[in-house]
Amino acid sequence: MLAGVELGFLWVSPVYLGYGIPRGDGSGVVLVPGFLASDRSLKALYSWLKRIGYRSYYSGISINAECPNLLIGQHLRAVIEKAYEATNRRVHVIGHSLGGAMARAVAAQMPERIASVITLASPIRSVAAHSTVLRMADVVREQILNRHGAAVLPNCYTTQCTCNFLASVMQKIPKSVRQTAIYSKCDGIMDWRACQTGDPRVDVEVSSTHVGLVVNPLVYQVLAERLAASRPAKGRGQHQIRRVSQGVVC
Asked: Helix (H) and strand (E) counts for the chain?
């Protein structure tokens, strides 16, 4: 219900109309949906990014309920290459929840193609979520093992997996890739402490629900500023990055 309120605030906010925020420079922005979500969940963000001057791209993931390692190899890397070739510049990647972990993994794997990675309530330090979500993850894991068999590792979709995805998530991202980790103490799904890097230059707190992060005007304000700050100095506007604390009341 609160996510619907956030969407209503977004529709009437100046940020959504493009007022008071730095404009895009034509760079590509690849969006990655969260656990059990599809690209459709990011439709508002996709349209807004195009409207303010970026070239937005969907991940091509029909539903994020598959081995992340396979999804990165089958979809995400190809979309990033497409965006890079189309814009002739490094690409930004924004991921929600599990999609953010995938975004960090691909940023570690191909930093020469990535300008920045932005996570929205994504498990960075550990997987600490509501018990219902963890039970749903167990169901998805069983489906993955039944579907792929020996094509995936026995510990697929667990923190004990030794696949390239988990190794990349834990890997240190090169300094050439600007990082932002947006989290909310009102999340309700993910433990907000697991969504921080521990670096105050990277972590940004907003007031939002977990689902509402993709339609929250406060998040959009941060996104516009952080994307602009990733450009070379001559291409930046005069907007200052600031911590956002207003919004949905916890």
From this structure: 9, 6
- Tell me if 107 sits within 8 A of 117, measured CB to CB: yes
Record the pTM: 0.90
Can you give the residue ranges of every domain in the chain?
2-235
82 in helix, strand or coil? Answer: helix
Residue by residue, DSSP assigns 136-165 as: HHHHHHHHHHHHHGGGS-TTTTSTT--SHH
Q: Fold for domain 2-235?
A: Rossmann fold (3.40.50)
Tell how far CA 148 is from the center of its chain: 26
pLDDT in tens, 162-214: 999 999 998 999 999 999 999 999 998 999 999 999 999 999 999 999 999 99
Record the tokens describing residue 231, joined without a space.
């450009």
Instruction: Give the SS3 label for residue 29.
Output: strand
Measured CA to CA in angstroms, residue 134 lies from 48, 128, 208, 242 at distances of 32, 9, 21, 33
